[in-house]
TrEMBL record:
InterPro entries: Cro/C1-type_HTH (IPR001387), Lambda_DNA-bd_dom_sf (IPR010982). This is Plasmid maintenance system antidote protein VapI. It comes from Neolewinella aquimaris. One of its GO terms (molecular function) is DNA binding. Residues 77-131 form the HTH cro/C1-type domain.
Length: 160
């Protein structure tokens, strides 16, 4: 008999590291506790939780070496703006960043530069280095895919 398992791709911790049977009584009990507690939270606390969740997603993306999909660092900025209810235009005006350049960053056509990483880091409480690490990871991933038949380099071969 086939088990009826529903997979939560985010995992129980939001990092995608575990499978969860969403039909189990333990999961349903946990879910109802979380819902009950979240209803009593202030708007500020809910936003703080959302931002923390996105930060964990960013760190999880960085820690995965077998990622098939490139997520532009700007996409995380876009998600953060959605969570706090701030328009892209308002954000670009606030940080003194050209709106069309911001849109290009959000769509992945341009990279998050150190200036934008510093400003977004300060606003959202996420280390600027994380934004730049995401850009570096994506650049290496893209380069690796474009470089067919790369020579295998090794220290032992070099020392011969």
């Amino acid at each position: 008999m086939k088990k009826n398992k529903v997979i939560n791709e985010g995992g129980i911790n939001g990092l995608g590291e575990s499978l969860v049977n969403q039909n189990s009584s333990a999961f349903k009990a946990l879910k109802s506790i979380i819902i009950a507690r979240s209803q009593g939270q202030t708007k500020a606390k809910k936003i703080e939780s959302e931002l923390l969740s996105l930060r964990f997603q960013m760190e999880s993306y960085l820690s995965k070496s077998d990622e098939d999909t490139i997520i532009p660092a700007g996409r995380f900025i876009e998600q953060l703006l959605e969570k706090v209810g701030v328009s892209k235009k308002r954000f670009s005006d606030y940080i003194g960043y050209d709106y069309s350049n911001l849109i290009s960053v959000l769509k992945g056509r341009r990279k998050v530069n150190p200036d934008l990483a510093m400003k977004a880091g300060k606003i959202f409480g996420i280390e600027p280095a994380i934004w730049l690490h995401i850009e570096s990871k994506n650049e290496l991933f893209t380069y690796r895919d474009k470089k067919p038949g790369d020579h295998e380099y090794s220290l032992l071969e070099l020392m011969k």
